[in-house]
Amino acid sequence: MTAQIIDGKAIAEQVRGEWKKRADALKAQGVLPGLAVIIVGDNPASKVYVRNKVRACHDVGLHSEVHELPADITEAMLLKQIQDLNANPDIHGILVQLPLPDHISDDKVLETIDVEKDVDGFHLYNLGALVAGNTVFPPCTPYGVQCLIEHTNIPIEGQNAVVVGRSNIVGKPMALMLLHKGATVSICTSKTRDLAFYTRLADILVVAVGRPGLITADMVKEGAAVLDVGINRTDEGKLVGDVDFESVKEKAGHITPVPGGVGPMTISMLVANTVLAAERLSGLGSGK
Ligand code: NDP
């Protein structure tokens, strides 16, 4: 069996088009959805991610602004910048690109963002709401994966889902989202004794680790849906995921490529959350 390759780029564009209509409706009523992105230091990968996010907002006609801050900025100054953006009525979404320099606490920074503008969904309140099944802003990457699964009509309810990775930004929220949709969910980590035992049980396998070639064909159930979140750069400069794409695609039912799978969806979900925030803060549109 050769897997159906899930075209994340095409689905991401379709999703962006749907949210553009909602953004246009807001603009017609005098509200221009606005996203502020803060980037600290000059991590080249972070710069690429920020550029792609800003470009996506621009394509949909949103306002976006980037605040580039030096790596030696004090934590207090960064928090003040976030507070100013919290108070700015033209800004509906605030995103602080991670990682931050070691002298700055990620937690303090994320907790300072107004929950109603937390379009990345990383604030503890938003993560807690997700646990309770009351999502405020679903974190963009797992939300994008869920959207890919739904757009491809892959059933979730009653299926065995295995998530490899337990970060607060991908693995844990992903597992919760699948759980809320009725899947039976296992979460695997670096401490899991027999990873292949679990991955072979998966009807839906989401891999978010950051290790090229971690998942090989013998670890995948025939016909499974395999969603590869990993982004790794090889010595030759090529981008690859965590899944050995060439061999796994001969066994899986569906598979996402890297690049062109989950990555573009993450960005579309950021656009979605920014428009959603603007709807809610302005009291216009459905806000759902
Ligand atoms: P983290 O480093 O925060 O988490 C990685 C997780 O993988 C940890 O929970 C770790 O377990 C687990 N892990 C490590 N080694 C193994 C192993 N051998 N077997 C099983 N589990 C293992 O990473 P992130 O969640 O932030 O990101 C994961 C990947 O996804 C990265 O490649 C990142 O670049 C990519 N990414 C892609 C995005 C996109 O838009 N496509 C967005 C965000 C991330 P433990 O907790 O025990 O250490």
From TrEMBL:
Keyword list, A-Z: Amino-acid biosynthesis, Histidine biosynthesis, Hydrolase, Methionine biosynthesis, Multifunctional enzyme, NADP, One-carbon metabolism, Oxidoreductase, Purine biosynthesis
Domain (Tetrahydrofolate dehydrogenase/cyclohydrolase catalytic): residue spans on this chain: 6-120
Functional pathway: One-carbon metabolism; tetrahydrofolate interconversion
One Gene Ontology cellular component: cytosol
Ranges where the Tetrahydrofolate dehydrogenase/cyclohydrolase NAD(P)-binding domain occurs: 139-280
Signal peptide bounds: none
Xref: Pfam families: THF_DHG_CYH, THF_DHG_CYH_C
Gene Ontology biological process: L-histidine biosynthetic process; methionine biosynthetic process; purine nucleotide biosynthetic process; tetrahydrofolate interconversion
Molecular function as annotated in GO: methenyltetrahydrofolate cyclohydrolase activity; methylenetetrahydrofolate dehydrogenase (NADP+) activity
EC number, UniProt record: 1.5.1.5, 3.5.4.9
Catalytic activity: (6R)-5,10-methenyltetrahydrofolate + H2O = (6R)-10-formyltetrahydrofolate + H(+); (6R)-5,10-methylene-5,6,7,8-tetrahydrofolate + NADP(+) = (6R)-5,10-methenyltetrahydrofolate + NADPH
Source domain of life: Bacteria
Residues engaged in binding NADP(+): G165, R166, S167, I231
Keyword Nucleotidyltransferase: no
SUPFAM superfamilies documented for this protein: Aminoacid dehydrogenase-like, N-terminal domain (SSF53223), NAD(P)-binding Rossmann-fold domains (SSF51735)
NCBIfam families recorded: PRK10792.1, PRK14186.1, PRK14189.1
Protein family: Belongs to the tetrahydrofolate dehydrogenase/cyclohydrolase family.
Subunit and partners: Homodimer.
Task of the protein: Catalyzes the oxidation of 5,10-methylenetetrahydrofolate to 5,10-methenyltetrahydrofolate and then the hydrolysis of 5,10-methenyltetrahydrofolate to 10-formyltetrahydrofolate.
Protein name as annotated: Bifunctional protein FolD
Organism: Methylohalomonas lacus
